[in-house]
Hints:
- The complex is a heterodimer.
- By secondary structure, chain A is α+β, with helices and mostly antiparallel strands.
- In chain A, a hairpin with a 2-residue loop joins strand 9 and strand 10.
- Chain A has 2 helices and 11 strands, in the order H-E-E-H-E-E-E-E-E-E-E-E-E.
- The model of chain A has no long low-confidence stretch (mean pLDDT 87).
- Chain A has 2 domains: 3-90, Type Iii Antifreeze Protein Isoform Hplc 12, CATH 3.90.1210; 100-173, no CATH class.
- Chain A is 18% helix and 27% strand.
- Chain B has 3 domains: 1-79; 101-235, no CATH class; 244-405.
- Chain B has 14 helices and no strands.
- Chain B is mainly α.
- At the A-B interface, helix 1 and helix 2 of A face helix 3, helix 5, helix 12 and helix 13 of B.
Amino acid sequence: MTTGRFLAFVYAVAMLGVAWFLPWHGDASYVRAVRYLGANTRMARPLWTEPRDQSVTGRLELGRLEDELVGKYLRRPVEADARLSRADAMPWPDLPGEEIVQVLLDEEPDWLMLNQGSTVDVWIGQKRATPQYAVVQAIVASGRKWIVLLRRKDFAADVLGNTADKPALHLVRLPHKP
Amino acid sequence: MLSTFLTQLQSYFSKYFIVGSFFPMLAFTFLNGLIAYFLIGRWHHWADENILNATASGAAFFTASIVVAILLAAYVLAALSTFLRRILEGQWSESLRAWFVPAQNRRREAIATQLSAEGREMADLRYALAWEEKIKDAWAEGRRTHPTVKRPTPDPDPIAVALEALEQQRDKYGPVPAEELEAVAGQIAAGLETCDGDTSLEFNGYNVRLKALVQYADDRARARYARLQNELNSNFGLQELAPTKMGNVANTVQGYAIRRYHCNLEIVWSNLQRIMAKDDKASATLQEAKTQLDFLVACCWLSLVSAAAWSIIFAFFDPNRAGFLLAALGGPLIAYMWYRAAAEQYRSFADLVMTSLDTFRFDLLRQMRMKLPVDVEDERTMWEHLDKLTTFGELQNFQYEHPKQ
């Protein structure tokens, strides 16, 4: 092997070594939260904005990041306009070990308005089931339907035995920073 | 607009500067700007605001500023062109040269070994006449000692098999070694000694086939010898080996001048250029070849600089493995391709310099008030003496020949 070829080989190996420490795609890519988002918020595109002045590879990477974030749950609370990245996402909500009540939704909710932290009122038939309102703990998918998870203790003790009527959920207050 | 600009530019700068330095700088700036436009968001935003979507006056201001910057950079590139070319020619420190010279030496030795082998082959094939004589003698001997005896043809016939094997080599334009031809000639002669060749008709055919093979082997060896000699002459000079291919091609000019005329071209090159300048066509042809060389050398360096810049960007400012690998490995590869193209162009340039020496050397001697040599030997002696006088300051007396008033 000639010196030139040897040096070219060493150079190529060195460059591959440097490349090893670089990300395939920018792990540094991020989006910004449009409002305060609590932990266990189900993530959807209306909840963030894209940073401006992105390069072509930056935009490609951003699209990949957004695809990965959609449908996941926020690991920690995020302030309005703070960065959201892959590290903030988890595949399933992390709920405390307490009794929950599930309320079915037929349609996908407006994630900006109805999500973790939203205050809701639940009615079963003509009876109000949540005397002091309830705070949404998380919303998970079930086939084509959506299940809103609420704390059992937010419900009146005598309303949940009656299963003939379907619970109806009304949004009372948007999610806000506690 | 661009053509007007180029026309105006040409009136201030020579066309050789425009082609050799300005165009490469313009092309690389545009290319890098275009890549940056798609890859760097801030540049994309700035270009959109100040050039692409700007008002006419704003866009004109920034475009003019960029062109002036390119012009200045091209001027610097032109000033550095000799330095940059010399680096590619391998004018490095002695210790660095020592690393790369052995590879060039092996390359030269490989050609020289093949050349020597072809020379030996040509020399061996000169004995073909002796082989023919041997066959003739054997024919006569067989006819005398075994009249009317027909050779019992073996199956397979070893002579036919050997000839066929050599003919197959010929069909592939492969080597047909002289020693194998000699062996076949020996087989034919041995066969003829045991029979009457006039009755064993296959020997006529064998003789014709052997002669055709000898002719082929001789033609091939001569053609290869000439090609290898040209390859050696156009790749390596006679002086010290340079550590790069381009450096050795550059040495061929001096090598030719010494081999052909015993002339040290370096000491007369400036004077020769002055003489050539009087011939517009020759001067322009040489300048154009030099400009093309400068263009390729500039492209080689600009590729390297661009690759280095993008490697740094993809390593530190916008970390991206694919982009980094593309810049760090692809960039030098492209630069190497430019370098190879430049080395080939150097060969054309060297050819032109050699031709210029052939054409203008007597004009040069006349200009130097030297008496014109009467023959080749006289000319070689004259150049040798001139070299001793100029390079070493040895006293060599020349009689001047002044033009008649």
